[in-house]
Amino acid sequence: MRLKELRGDLKQKEVVQHIKKTDKRVDSGLYSKYENGVALPTPEQLKAICELLGVEPLDIYSEAEINLKSTKATVHKATAKESEEPETYNLCVRLERGAARWFRKDILAACGYRNLTHWVNVGLLRLKKEYEKVTAKAKKKAARIERQNGRHDN
């Protein structure tokens, strides 16, 4: 459980105030239990915490600590019922624990990204362009070798 680590410079009081917008029952004592692994937040409270910290639930808790439906599949094609966009993929990846701190909303925004999904999509476009460049270069090389072989055969 990494809630305290991901909270960073935010004070517990600030996090509690944010959660109270969703659930007025939360106080510093209860939130302290979340950070110390004594209790788990409700799904609504967890959503508020993730929103504030700019992280996903699995950045805070391991699969063993919390049961989330989204952890059942590593990658799966979403159906129209699961997603507003029928041709989207839900992607779950495993990274080193320290990597999560770079996915905070403030860091992503400072680098020009709207959110983590935007960052992934930009990276995917870069990968696609790089792949197209590499395959075009390989095709040119193969064509050049083919032409050279054709000259040597004559």
- How far apart are the first and last residues' alpha carbons, in Å? 70 Å
String of helices and strands: HHHHHEEHH
Q: Identify the strand order in the major beta sheet.
A: 1-2
Pick out the low-confidence regions: 68-84
The coarse overall form would be elongated
Radius of gyration: 23 Å
Beta-strand share of residues:
under 5%
Number of helices: 7
Largest sheet: 2 strands, antiparallel
Please, what is the average pLDDT? Answer: 83
Total E-strand runs: 2
Counting helices, strands and paired strands, the structural category is: mainly alpha
Helix content: 40-55%
Oligomeric description of these chains:
single chain
Write a brief structural summary.
The chain is about 55% helix and about 5% strand. It is built from seven helices and two strands; from the N terminus they run αααααββαα.
SSE layout and pairing:
Blueprint: H1 3-7, H2 12-20, H3 28-35, H4 43-53, H5 57-60, E1 75-77, E2 89-91, H6 105-110, H7 116-153
Antiparallel strand pairs: 1-2
Q: What key attributes describe this structure?
A:
154 residues, mainly alpha, two-stranded antiparallel sheet, 2 strands, elongated
